[in-house]
Design brief:
Helix 3 (110-123) runs parallel beside helix 4 (147-160). This protein starts with a strand and ends in a 5-residue tail after the last helix. It is of the alpha/beta class. The protein is elongated. It contains eleven helices and 14 strands. The longest helix is centred in the last third of the chain and has 17 residues, at 319-335. 36% of the residues lie in helices and 18% in strands. Strand 9 (164-167), helix 5 and strand 10 form a beta-alpha-beta unit. The protein binds phosphoenolpyruvate (PEP) and manganese (II) ion. Phosphoenolpyruvate binds next to loops.
């Protein structure tokens, strides 16, 4: 349920409504600094719904009380009809610009990361991606450089000005990762790691939440709800391919997820064509499809020497190919009234 206060409502009236929500056993929620005049009532409303609507409708300063039928409340477009724009430095995700985050799968060493950062920036990427903590299927595979990798990412940001997106895998590492990163990535395998979602929800860092390999769109939104309900509304969703019976590609891009998510939520939606396809040859086509379908951004793996990459070489674009793709994407963006 949401309570929309009258534009002229006083602070005292807003406080009275907030206190009343808590008094009857629910959790009042306002987006700090953004919309004190829209108060969400969180908790299981069950059978008391109709009574509660009447109860709050009668309070001073209340303009309207609406029930949100979606299971996700704070992530719902019913709660927030306008699309959310999430700012990372001077980059706005969810606005007219289609934002591309690019970089290596893993941070391997300083020279590699800095070279790639310069190349993707020159091609028009607005964020640098790169993993320091890597969730690998095999425990014998390269696990990432950890804090050393984070320091390299910070150096690459210093040199290029590109904000950094990097994964955090464990609740105990959130404080460390956020010292270096601009956006905290939650990987596909952790989409339903609720303690981790709550922990990043308690920070003010933007969160890039990747869809689980075997998760429904609805589950992705419920995971976003975990982050937002802790007080962090800066969530960016990312479709990254799901597991299906098809094995010609690493995963199957659920392109439908883009219009469905844009319909159901106000949160920005990105797509990762690299993990979705697992093959650099298909990354361009799927990127273009995503922009045409309304994605707010892309997360693309780029490597200067894919053959020797420590992870995900086969799906990484070389910088020159990435630059060509960026110019093609600019034309697609323009055709759908966006820009790159
Ligand atoms: C990544 O983007 O580095 C990554 C590991 O992706 P995913 O969690 O989608 O597999
Ligand atoms: Mn990867």
């Amino acid at each position: 349920m949401i309570i929309i206060m009258d534009p002229q409502a006083t602070e005292a009236e807003i406080d009275a409504v907030t206190e009343e929500i808590a008094r009857i056993g629910f959790r009042p929620f306002t987006n700090p600094g953004v919309e004190r005049k829209v108060i969400a009532v969180l908790g299981e409303l069950d059978v008391r719904k109709a009574d509660l609507v009447e109860h709050f409708q009668a309070m001073a300063g209340v303009a309207r009380v609406d029930l949100i039928s979606d299971l996700w409340k704070l992530a719902s477009r019913q709660y927030h009809p306008e699309g959310s724009v999430i700012r990372v430095g001077d980059v706005a995700i969810g606005g007219r610009e289609v934002v591309v985050a690019a970089g290596p799968c893993s941070v391997e060493n300083e020279a590699q990361t800095i070279e790639i950062a310069h190349r993707v920036k020159a091609a028009g990427a607005r964020l640098l991606r790169g993993g320091a903590f890597k969730p690998r299927t095999s425990p014998y595979s390269f696990q990432g450089l950890g804090e050393k990798g984070l320091r390299i990412l910070a150096k690459a940001r210093e040199e290029t000005g590109l904000p950094v997106v990097t994964e955090v895998m464990d609740t105990h590492e959130v404080d460390l990762v956020r010292k270096y990163a601009d956006v905290l990535q939650i990987g596909t395998r952790n989409m339903q790691n609720y303690p981790l979602l709550k922990k990043v929800g308690s920070t003010s860092h933007p969160v890039l939440l990747k869809r689980g390999l075997g998760s429904k769109i609805k589950d992705l939104l419920m995971s976003a709800e975990y982050v937002i309900s802790e007080g962090n509304h800066r969530v960016i969703l990312c479709e990254r391919g799901i597991t299906t019976f098809e094995d010609s590609t690493r995963h199957t891009t659920d392109i439908n997820a883009i219009p469905v998510l844009k319909h159901w939520t106000h949160l920005p939606v990105m797509l990762d064509p690299s993990h979705a396809t697992g093959n650099w040859q298909y990354v361009g086509a799927v990127s273009k499809a995503a922009v045409a379908a309304g994605a707010d951004g892309l997360l693309i793996e780029v490597h200067n020497d894919p053959q020797h990459a420590l992870s995900d070489g086969p799906q990484s674009l070389r910088p020159d190919k990435f630059a060509v793709l960026m110019s093609e994407l600019a034309r697609i963006a323009e055709a759908v009234d966006r820009r790159l």
